[in-house]
Amino acid sequence: MLVEIYTDGAARGNPEGPGGYGVVMRYVDAKGQEHIKELSAGYDKTTNNRMELMGAIVGLESLNRSCDVALYSDSQYVIKAFNDKWLDGWIKRGWKTAGKQPVKNVELWKRLLEAAKPHNIKWNWVKGHAGHSENERCDELATTAADGDITTLLHDDGGDLR
Description:
By secondary structure, the chain is an alpha/beta fold. 33% of the residues lie in helices and 29% in strands.
């Protein structure tokens, strides 16, 4: 089964403002029926990159069996980590960048790698705010979540966001 996952993250006042992620998932079942699922959540203080990662994580974690996945994101941070093999280098260097600095958001990268394991994923970059309907919808979900009532926002302490 091929599942398309579109993701986006947003943060207001990055890096110390509220943020959110949005996910749109789509697949067509064996009977030709299209299924669409949308996911989003907001956090009181976070960064855009953390929310971009959370979109991909939550989308993959919501799959209940191994799938072929086409994952779309406007985050080069997420897409290049896989397509340009940044993750391979970070792991080889003990989660250090090429400049020997600690990789930021390492706990989320590890969680994303775990979520990706059961699946065959093609990582696709899409230009943000360019009229791509699913990306625009993800942006709407992410920004709406970021702008949510502060009492409904989750706290991102930089640790595990589950």
